[in-house]
């Protein structure tokens, strides 16, 4: 997160030389989404970051007068180049900027906007955000869009120089109700499109009637500049708390994705706090054998681990939380391996008061095949979001439940069996909401192993 004020989407995520650069939607003047700029941070390891000056600011009277909205960064034969959405009044149009060798200072292209109008043959709900890549013959670009009365869409463009673009056709148009069982809304924001193993993945963020819902991932085949999805899923089951993700392929060939972790408290509370929004942990995406996505936190995060605490195997009695007195805190990493009873639920409670009045449970229900983050008692503050988040999770016969949990004050990121993630926000009120407990419901469960680490700061020189 920036030191203060508003942050939303990750932008221009790129590795330049050995350095990772992450730009982001940023309002330097308040904790609200207004007149957004491109903030900038850089890292050598995806974990420890340094803050850099604002990269892009709106130009009065220009096509981005009301905001430099989301976009991407590419390497144009050694020249760092950003393509972003310039917002002015109701118009949102593609703009370009080129950077210095260190990516710190940026010059806007005098010919902006580079795509002045949407395609004339389409009636669009909205149209913005960019994903650009190189193929043998040309540059290609996707813009997010929604076709009125039809559904979310990604529009394909082609260019030889990144400055002059020809509209090709929609790469894909969705049904506004469903794609393969997943509701995909009326407009798609922030497209991200990339090869993964022998498939292509299209990630979009599902917008509908001004509500930001979740990031969807379609896994499919890209051929002849058309995309055919074979599989659709949520990229993260925390819904609005993991939105507008952007990914890169780094020098090791890994696909790493970061999303915007939106607040779950009132606008007044965000203003009073003086800040809003964080980035998620960086996650590595791979393809599972069944064609779905696997997700796990990047291995570099282990460098934040403090002294390890371990709990040996034990039985967790049904309906009696087992408080782990040796582990507590609000910046923790937990690795927990459990054997659920076939007719019960089991998991972990975090940010728990000693009397259990406040707590957030991460619970797997073996009957419903659901992993849930239960926020009903996450906070005594009724103005915070306390709905449940649930992810489908079916364990194979004999498979154990492997939870990997990262807790960072109000940010909770849960990974299960490398298959699903749930990103959530919780706002406990108690100064003693720091406890950790093991829980089993309806039937005893077994703990096979639990390792815990206090987590250090990502800002060099800062206290944890
Ligand atoms: N946020 C940006 C837009 C994008 C939206 C504006 C998604 O470019 O569509 O801050 O959160």
Descriptors for this entry?
single chain, 464 residues, mainly beta, seven-stranded antiparallel beta sheet, six-stranded antiparallel beta sheet, 1 helix, binds 2,5-dideoxy-2,5-imino-D-mannitol
Question: Describe it for me?
Answer:
It is a single chain. The chain has one helix and 35 strands. The mean pLDDT is 97. The two termini are 15 Å apart. Strands 23, 24, 26, 31, 32, 33 and 35 form a seven-stranded antiparallel β-sheet that branches. A six-stranded antiparallel β-sheet has the order 25-34-27-28-29-30, with no helix packed on it. Strands 4-3-2-1-19 form a five-stranded mixed β-sheet. Helices cover 2% and strands 55% of the residues. By secondary structure, it is mainly beta. 2,5-dideoxy-2,5-imino-D-mannitol binds at residues 8-9, 25, 36, 69-70, 85, 128-129, 189-190, 205, 212, 243-244.
Please give the count of helices: 1
Q: Give the overall average pLDDT.
A: 97
Strand content: over 45%
Parts with pLDDT < 50 across at least 5 consecutive residues: none
Structural class, from helix and strand content? mainly beta
Bound molecules: 2,5-dideoxy-2,5-imino-D-mannitol
Task: Give a quick precis of the structure.
The chain contains one helix and 35 strands. With 464 residues, it is mainly β.
Secondary-structure map:
Blueprint: E1 5-16, E2 19-27, E3 37-43, E4 49-56, E5 67-76, E6 79-88, E7 91-99, E8 106-108, E9 124-134, E10 139-147, E11 151-159, E12 166-173, E13 187-196, E14 199-208, E15 211-223, E16 226-234, E17 243-249, E18 255-261, H1 267-273, E19 275-276, E20 278-279, E21 283-287, E22 293-297, E23 309-311, E24 314-316, E25 322-328, E26 331-339, E27 345-352, E28 360-365, E29 370-374, E30 389-392, E31 401-408, E32 411-416, E33 420-425, E34 435-441, E35 445-454
Parallel strand pairs: 1-19
Antiparallel strand pairs: 1-2, 2-3, 3-4, 5-6, 6-7, 7-8, 9-10, 10-11, 11-12, 13-14, 14-15, 15-16, 17-18, 18-20, 18-21, 21-22, 23-35, 24-35, 25-34, 26-31, 26-35, 27-28, 27-34, 28-29, 29-30, 31-32, 32-33
Bound molecules: 2,5-dideoxy-2,5-imino-D-mannitol.
Residues 8-9, 25, 36, 69-70, 85, 128-129, 189-190, 205, 212, 243-244 line the site of 2,5-dideoxy-2,5-imino-D-mannitol.
């Amino acid at each position: 997160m920036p030191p203060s004020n508003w942050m939303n989407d990750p932008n221009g995520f790129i590795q330049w030389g050995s350095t990772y650069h992450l730009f982001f939607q940023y309002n330097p003047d308040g904790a609200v989404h207004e007149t957004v700029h491109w903030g900038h941070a850089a890292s050598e390891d995806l974990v420890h970051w340094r803050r850099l000056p604002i990269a892009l600011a709106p130009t009065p009277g220009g096509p981005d007068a009301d905001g430099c909205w989301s976009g991407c960064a590419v390497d144009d034969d050694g020249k760092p180049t950003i393509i972003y959405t310039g917002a002015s009044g109701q118009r949102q149009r593609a703009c370009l900027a080129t950077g210095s060798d260190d990516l710190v200072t940026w010059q806007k292209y005098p010919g902006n906007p580079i795509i002045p109008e949407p395609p004339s043959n389409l009636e669009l709900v909205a149209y913005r955000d960019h994903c650009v890549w190189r193929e043998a013959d040309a540059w290609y670009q996707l813009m997010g869009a929604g076709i009125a009365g039809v559904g979310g869409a990604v529009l394909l463009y082609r260019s030889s120089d990144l400055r002059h673009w020809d509209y090709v056709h929609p790469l894909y148009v969705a049904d506004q109700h469903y794609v393969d069982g997943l509701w995909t809304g009326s407009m798609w924001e922030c497209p991200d499109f990339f090869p993964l193993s022998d498939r292509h993945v299209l990630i979009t963020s599902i917008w509908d009637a001004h509500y930001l819902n979740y990031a969807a991932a379609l896994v499919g085949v890209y051929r002849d500049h058309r995309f055919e999805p074979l599989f659709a899923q949520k990229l993260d089951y925390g819904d609005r708390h993991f939105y507008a993700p952007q990914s890169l392929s780094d020098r090791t060939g890994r696909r790493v994705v970061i999303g915007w972790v939106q607040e779950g408290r009132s606008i007044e509370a965000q203003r009073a706090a003086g800040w809003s929004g964080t980035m998620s942990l960086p996650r590595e995406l791979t393809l599972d054998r069944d064609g779905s996505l696997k997700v796990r936190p990047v291995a570099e995060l282990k460098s934040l681990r403090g002294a390890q605490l371990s709990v040996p195997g034990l039985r967790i009695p049904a309906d009696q939380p087992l408080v782990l007195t040796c582990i507590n805190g609000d910046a923790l990493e937990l690795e927990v391996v459990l054997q659920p009873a076939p007719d019960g639920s089991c998991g972990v409670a975090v940010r728990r008061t000693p009397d259990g009045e406040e707590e957030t449970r991460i619970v797997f229900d073996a009957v419903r095949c659901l992993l849930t983050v239960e926020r009903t008692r996450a906070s005594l503050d009724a103005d915070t979001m306390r709905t449940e988040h649930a992810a489908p999770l079916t364990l194979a016969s004999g498979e154990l439940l492997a939870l990997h949990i990262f807790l960072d004050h109000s940010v909770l990121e849960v990974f299960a069996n490398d298959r699903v993630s749930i990103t959530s926000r919780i706002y406990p009120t108690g100064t003693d909401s720091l406890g950790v407990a093991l829980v089993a419901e309806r039937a005893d469960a077994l703990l096979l192993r639990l390792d815990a680490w206090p987590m250090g700061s990502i800002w060099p020189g800062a206290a944890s």
